[in-house]
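Students often ask why inverse folding is considered easier than folding. One informal answer: many sequences map to the same fold, so there is more than one right answer. In these notes we will look at a single instance of the problem. The structure comes first.
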């Protein structure tokens, strides 16, 4: 599937994808066999008694479902320098770091060339379907991508964000050029030492190449919004840089300054044009197409926890279509968006059957039986055995040493593309918040916030960011929602927002617990402007790349650094009077 030539043939990629997905069951068996032939004598598999067998039945009988905790000791040995076949036949030479927003700290995930190859396969397949709908010319992409610093583990392995491992691979640039996705920014900006300086220079590079920009990209919806929110503050400074041909003195990274000096020449005409464009906008609506008149779409992950950002992104995008990027995680890729013209809220992802071995734990079938049997889990089913309309938790066996790995994502099967399922991301499988018997998921929180933000919208106010916390320091425990909003809201407006949050929470949990005072009134805490930016900077300081940062939607009291940032920036709080 992976095209190795520089001349990209999208039709051939689609043709191969169609053939492969028609026989997805067979391809899955072959993929598992290949993974196990290459890694079957690794210590992890040997200890569990697989003994070189490569068929799905033996694999499932011998190898248990696992989480990162089950692999952590093995991964740590690799990171510490043990080069014996622990998880894979060939030594692992680098580690990816997860974003760290789930547990408050990043975790190591093995990364190898095979995982890089699957990443390029996803990029090529996705581009083939996207380009068939909206063909690009020979222009450039404005890509807000950032590479975090790599460091060496105790054993000398290179470690960095998953995106960093991809961007630093020599084949990455070649592939991007072949699929007409070459960044307008030089490498020095992408690999800069400070993401604020890199972000500013990405904007500057885009403006210098404004007529050549055909697409705008970042990993996540919020990391597309951030540069344009920044643009609102620095647009006049950018115009001055373009007019004078001199980069702002606060950009101090020597490599960035050297690279930008080759691009930045005095251009008063361009500066005046941008100034005029900006001055003519009303509340920055349609900013992106105004700045980049030949842009054809905006591209990035826009599903799941990114959906709350779509309203703001559409504001900046104006008439430009938003196309949701593909479905994967630091542990590996899963599916590709083969229907790119669907709005992000309806996006589905067709599983590519040769990039890993996939199983699905049914979440809703036989729910009554499960309760009677002490909530025992259903057995996982194969890729071609899932049913339309059902929800599942994904289990992945990847090409880099993770076997029957519970990814932690809940998906819904929306249909099939030939014989492979098309999945819609629903939420993370782990509970977000819980007090007593209440169970609140990420999706429940998102629905509650959407219901409450309509009250803000009626006041022409915008919800900038949010997160949550279960406060059990007093009796009864209660839920806390932290909000950052765009302006000053009246007390009665925020009380109404608080009541709406509480009502939706109790619909998701149990109203009886709330009415019976087993859980206390929900609390809404409003924080200062810039609070969530401080949280982002905290995670970036831990090694998380801006390209893969996601705002944590729940913060436990054990995540002291982030919890302290939130609590120290509260300006007002309100308790629900809904019950």
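Output (designed amino acids):
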């Amino acid at each position: 599937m992976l095209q190795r030539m520089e001349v990209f043939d999208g039709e051939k990629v689609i043709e191969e994808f169609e053939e492969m997905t028609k026989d997805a069951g067979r391809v899955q068996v072959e993929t598992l066999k290949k993974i196990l032939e290459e890694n079957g004598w690794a210590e992890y598999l040997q200890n569990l008694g697989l003994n070189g067998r490569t068929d799905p039945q033996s694999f499932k009988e011998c190898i248990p479902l696992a989480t990162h905790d089950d692999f952590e000791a093995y991964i740590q040995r690799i990171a510490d320098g043990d080069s014996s076949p622990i998880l894979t036949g060939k030594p692992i030479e680098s580690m990816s770091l997860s974003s760290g927003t789930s547990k408050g700290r990043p975790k190591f995930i093995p990364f190898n060339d095979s995982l890089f190859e699957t990443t390029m396969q996803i990029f090529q397949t996705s581009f083939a379907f996207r380009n068939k709908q909206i063909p690009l010319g020979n222009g450039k992409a404005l890509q807000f991508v950032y590479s975090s610093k790599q460091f060496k583990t105790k054993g000398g392995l290179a470690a960095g964000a998953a995106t960093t491992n991809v961007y630093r691979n020599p084949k990455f640039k070649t592939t991007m050029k072949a699929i007409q996705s070459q960044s307008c920014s030089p490498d020095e900006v992408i690999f800069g030492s400070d993401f604020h300086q890199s972000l500013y220079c990405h904007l500057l590079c885009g403006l210098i190449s404004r007529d050549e920009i055909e697409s705008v990209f970042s990993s996540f919806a919020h990391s597309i919004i951030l540069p344009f929110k920044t643009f609102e503050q620095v647009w006049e400074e950018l115009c001055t840089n373009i007019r004078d041909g001199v980069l702002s003195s606060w950009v101090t990274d020597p490599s960035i300054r050297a690279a930008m000096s080759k691009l930045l020449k005095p251009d008063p005409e361009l500066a005046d044009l941008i100034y005029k464009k900006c001055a003519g906008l009303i509340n920055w609506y349609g900013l992106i197409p105004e700045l980049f008149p030949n842009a054809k779409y905006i591209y990035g992950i826009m599903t799941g926890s990114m959906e709350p950002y779509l309203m703001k992104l559409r504001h900046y995008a104006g008439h430009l279509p938003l196309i949701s990027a593909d479905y994967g995680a630091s542990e590996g890729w899963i599916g590709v968006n083969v229907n790119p013209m669907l709005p992000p809220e309806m996006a589905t992802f067709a599983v590519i059957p040769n990039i890993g071995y996939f199983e699905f734990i049914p979440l809703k079938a036989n729910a009554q039986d499960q309760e009677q049997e002490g909530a025992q889990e259903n057995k996982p089913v194969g890729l071609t055995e899932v049913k339309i309309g059902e929800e599942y938790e994904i289990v992945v066996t990847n090409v880099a040493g993770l076997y029957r790995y519970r990814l932690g994502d809940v998906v819904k099967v929306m249909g099939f593309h030939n014989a492979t399922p098309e999945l819609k991301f629903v939420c993370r499988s782990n509970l977000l918040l819980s007090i007593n018997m209440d169970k609140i998921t990420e999706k429940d929180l998102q629905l509650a916030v959407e219901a409450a933000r309509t009250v803000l919208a009626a006041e022409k106010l915008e919800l900038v960011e949010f997160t949550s916390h279960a406060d059990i320091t007093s009796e009864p425990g209660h839920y806390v929602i932290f909000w950052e909003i765009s302006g000053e809201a009246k007390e009665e407006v925020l009380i109404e927002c608080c009541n709406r949050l509480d009502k939706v929470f109790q619909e998701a949990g149990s109203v009886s617990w709330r009415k019976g005072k087993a859980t206390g009134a929900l609390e809404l805490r409003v924080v200062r402007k810039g609070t969530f930016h401080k949280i982002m900077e905290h995670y970036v300081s831990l090694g998380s790349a801006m390209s893969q940062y996601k705002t944590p939607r729940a913060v436990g009291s054990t995540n002291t650094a982030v919890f302290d940032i939130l609590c120290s920036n509260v300006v007002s709080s309100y308790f629900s009077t809904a019950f």
